[in-house]
Design brief:
By secondary structure, the chain is α/β, with parallel strands linked by helices. It is built from 14 helices and 17 strands. The protein folds into two domains: 42 residues, no CATH class; 376 residues, 3-Layer(aba) Sandwich (Alkaline Phosphatase, subunit A). Strands 1, 4, 5, 6, 7, 8, 11, 12 and 15 form a nine-stranded mixed beta sheet that branches. It has a two-stranded antiparallel ribbon with strand order 2-3. The protein has a two-stranded antiparallel ribbon with strand order 9-10. The radius of gyration is 25 Å and the shape is globular. About 5% of the residues have low confidence.
Length: 492
């Protein structure tokens, strides 16, 4: 290739601005150098690789220090699990009465909902504990801890399909590219743990399920924040994190010396270019070095008492199961990890309510309840917020043929659904919000997705309006431009 042509191809925008001496180049370089000073200072303030806390945070005294989000991909059916509606049983097999739909948009699998037949809950409900919360027989372990839970029954969203709905719940926007909750918390509150990431993600799928959801990386992404704030995914088999081990013949002292030299070279580049991804590289190398010792210790559950393992259920010893991941979540927050996102797929029961819903509940009910009980008995529930829920609910009407019970299903329903929360400053034994007599629409104390996000941030001492990041000329935040903290969920 002609050397001049090669030079033109290799002349990047950053190189051009870095070499410019006057005019626009000088102004851009000045901005880059200013950013380099900030980024270098942040890296220097955290020599362990753990992100530092932002100045001025927390904004107020936090009720919680950690969040464990038990995210149920695929949308659990609220009308079969937690939102008991006797009228659904009375009207089973009859069309949805006029006035409940109001031109609402459903997925293309339903199309127009006019004339759809109502479907009764597939298992009985009972009131539980002193709080009298309604919980289905499908969730017997959750039923036993009902007095420790805060049920939020007035949730609603605008998303009607899975990936946009999950993105909305976790990042505040349907379109990928925004920072997720864990990334925002890491950016704002930093890390209390030097040997593990501040934001850890684990995923699982029930064995043999036919309705699993894909786990996209943007579900735990950092969006436009520097990538050092994104979630670190722990694998469900083998080594939890790949490439942590040293090659044969490399001892810890040699690796330490190599990383010190590499950090010095990267620091030079950081000062020259001010690219925050260079700071990310420095911190990730350092964190990986520390995780070489911390991750094997974390994953070794041999010392857990049998009584504790029994809380999580029979599959707790099997790496990659939801039960195992729930136990790991407790062990992670014990070690100071800020946010743990435990995602379980398979709730998308368009034609498998009478089969795979039972599997989902069996695989997740006991571990979820066991986690809350384990945290409580260790005194960790007071400052750990546990959130359980999916991206939306399921329709009160049937999807499929009413005469073919084995193929009963429910479609996506964004207009009303239920999640529960525990610990971390929320009111225990509370049922907040109410839907109509069919579970179709919220009629009392509605909670938008952004309201829930604002409340979670508030419980961790963060004012959702003040935790922002400037990108493309706008100050972005997790909760976008509208929402309120739901004070009724917070214990006084």
């Amino acid at each position: 290739m002609n050397p001049i042509q090669e030079h033109r191809q290799l002349l990047t925008r950053r190189t051009f601005l870095g070499r410019s001496g006057t005019g626009l180049g000088l102004a851009a370089l000045s901005g880059l150098l200013g950013r380099a000073d900030d980024t270098a200072a942040a890296a220097a303030a955290s020599p362990t690789g753990a992100p530092p806390r932002r100045p001025g945070l927390p904004h107020h005294a936090p009720r919680a220090k950690h969040v464990i989000y038990l995210f149920q991909n695929g949308a659990p059916t609220h009308v079969d699990l937690f939102d008991f509606k006797p009228r659904l049983k009375e009207l089973h097999g009859k069309p949805v009465p006029e006035g409940y739909l109001g031109g609402k948009r459903f997925s293309t699998m339903t199309g127009k909902a006019d004339g759809k037949l109502l479907l009764a809950p597939i298992e009985p409900f009972h009131r539980r504990g002193q709080s009298g919360a309604w919980v289905s027989d499908l969730m017997p372990h959750t039923a036993r801890i009902a007095d420790d839970l805060c049920f939020v029954k007035g949730l609603h969203t605008g998303s009607v399909n899975h990936a946009p709905g999950i993105s909305m719940m976790l990042s505040g926007a349907e379109i990928p590219g925004r920072p997720t909750l864990g990334a925002w918390l890491t950016y704002g509150l930093g890390s209390e743990c030097e040997n593990l990431p501040a934001f850890v993600v684990m995923t699982s799928v029930s064995k043999g399920t036919s309705c699993g959801q894909i786990f996209y990386d943007f579900y735990w992404g950092s969006g436009f924040l520097p990538s050092r704030f994104q979630g670190v995914k722990f694998r469900g088999g083998g080594e939890p994190v790949l490439y942590l081990g040293d090659p044969a013949g490399i001892d810890r002292a040699t690796r330490r010396a190599m990383l010190d030299d590499l950090a010095e070279l990267n620091s030079i580049k950081l000062r020259e270019h001010g690219d925050p991804e260079i700071a990310t590289r420095i911190s990730q190398y350092e964190m990986a070095f520390r995780m070489q010792a911390s991750v094997p210790e974390l994953a070794d559950i041999a010392g857990e008492p049998q009584s504790v393992l029994d809380l999580y259920g029979p599959s707790v010893r099997e790496q990659g199961t939801f039960a195992y991941n729930c136990l790991m979540a407790r062990r992670l927050i014990e070690r100071g990890v800020r946010t743990v996102q435990v995602m379980h797929a398979g709730w998308d029961q368009h034609n498998s309510l009478t089969t795979e819903l039972y599997t989902q509940c069996r695989d997740t009910d006991q571990p979820s309840a066991g986690l809350v009980a384990d945290l409580k008995q260790r005194g960790l529930l007071d400052d750990t917020l546990v959130v359980w829920g999916g991206e939306f609910g399921r329709t009160p009407f049937i999807q499929g043929n009413l005469d073919d019970r084995k193929r009963w299903g429910r479609d996506h329903h964004p207009y009303a659904f239920t999640s529960w929360m525990a610990g971390g400053g929320v009111k225990a034994g509370l049922t907040y919000g109410e839907t109509d007599d069919l579970g179709m629409n919220v009629v009392k104390d509605p909670v938008h997705v952004h309201d829930l996000q604002a409340t979670i941030l508030h419980l961790l001492g963060v004012d959702h309006e003040r935790l922002t990041y400037r990108f493309q000329g706008r100050d972005f935040r997790l909760t976008d431009i509208h929402c309120d903290v739901v004070k009724g969920l917070i214990d006084s």
